[in-house]
Amino acid sequence: MKSDKINITFALPNLLPGGAERVMSYIAQNLDSNRFKSTLLIIGYSKDASYDIKNIDVVYLEKPRVSKGVIALFNYIRKTKPDILVSAIGHLNTVTAYFSLIFPKTIFIAREVNVLSVLANYENQGKSSPFDFISQRRFNFFNKVICQSQDMLDDFHKNFNIKKIN
């Protein structure tokens, strides 16, 4: 029998010390447990966890990096069928964006942690990568994208053709 609670999974590459990890784990732990069944899904290793997570399920895929955890992540989504999956950090967001095409009943939400055009200029210094095409289009496949600042939102509208919502 399906629960009346909304099944929400928060996915992160790891639980090493960092802002995205702290924020996402805090939100996952503090959702209304009467309305949500919250799970924190970590691609990385349990031994690397820097945050003490209480009162929610934590699933570690025990993979060294997102690229090595794609199949395990796919199988997790297929098996648990979350109503909502919230992912954070660029490379994991890229994977989950394309999973949204395979799992249309799940709402996929991305939380970006950088102003991407600035980051791209800094990291690539004007060079392009074969993965740029895939990575830049990932936001078209999310149901929602969470921007943590007005600068980030403006960057999305200007550089990634993300529509404004009124």
UniProtKB/TrEMBL annotation:
> What InterPro entries does the record tag this protein with?
Glyco_trans_4-like_N
The organism named in the record is Winogradskyella psychrotolerans RS-3
Q: Can you say what this protein is called? A: Lipopolysaccharide biosynthesis
Q: Name one Pfam family in it.
A: Glyco_transf_4
Q: Which Gene3D superfamilies match?
A: Glycogen Phosphorylase B
Q: Tell me the ranges covered by the Glycosyltransferase subfamily 4-like N-terminal domain, including all copies.
A: 17-164
Highest rank taxon of the organism = Bacteria
Annotated Gene Ontology MF terms? glycosyltransferase activity
